[in-house]
Every structure is written in C-alpha cells, then in structure tokens.
C-alpha cells in the first residue's frame, strides 16, 4: 500500500482517505475484509495506535464495520459508498474551481475549458500524449 505521508495532515486522516479511495475505485469492494491493525501498521511502518484510530473513525462514519471475532469489513451499503464517492468528487471540484478562479478565469470560460477537455478525452479514448 504505497502512501506518501504529508507532514501537514494527520496520518490517520491520510489513511482514511486512502482507504476511502480504494473503496470508491473498486480496489476494495463492498463486504471485503480489510487488513488488521497489526498488518496495516507493519505494512505502513506506523504506530498501531494510529491505525486503530483510523479504523475507529471509519467505523464511526460507517465506512467499515466490525464483525466480532472475524475482523473489519468494507460496508456492504452501496448507498454509503456512493455518498463517499460524491463527497470526494465534491472536494476535487472545489479545489479545481478555486484554482481556476485564482487564475482569474470566468465561469463561462471554465465551462468551455472543461467541455473542450472532455471532448478531447473522449476522442483519444484514454490515449494521452505527453509533449
């Protein structure tokens, strides 16, 4: 699990975001078992207490559930997973719009830029060239 930690954000929040991203992208599916505290702590080379806090927060948000004696599992509620996906999309959109506004780009120009980029993307079907 490759995570490069940002010193400006608590590690447990970064792990939460990573796990949520794995869930919304399908790397972890609804009902999948997630690693134990010890496994994840060893893999990430962090304190088990940090992983425990991460899991407690994910449980509080109902992203994961504990099955007594069996471990922790991704929620089987598809509605919850869709809610996480929308939340993450909203955060990306907020950052994008803030960046565009900081560049002084007007709303109608933002729409044109996005429309053009989507049209280009659909023509290339994922083939990106780097110049």
UniProtKB/TrEMBL annotation:
SMART domains: HTH_GNTR. PROSITE patterns: HTH_GNTR. GO terms for molecular function: DNA binding; DNA-binding transcription factor activity. Gene3D superfamilies: Winged helix-like DNA-binding domain superfamily/Winged helix DNA-binding domain. InterPro entries: Tscrpt_reg_HTH_GntR, WH-like_DNA-bd_sf, WH_DNA-bd_sf. Pfam families: GntR (PF00392). The keyword rRNA-binding does not apply. Signal peptide: none annotated. The keyword Transcription applies. It comes from the Bacteria. Residues 9-77 form the HTH gntR-type domain. CDD domains: WHTH_GntR (cd07377). This is Transcriptional regulator, GntR family. It comes from Paenibacillus polysaccharolyticus. The lineage of its organism: Bacteria, Bacillati, Bacillota, Bacilli, Bacillales.
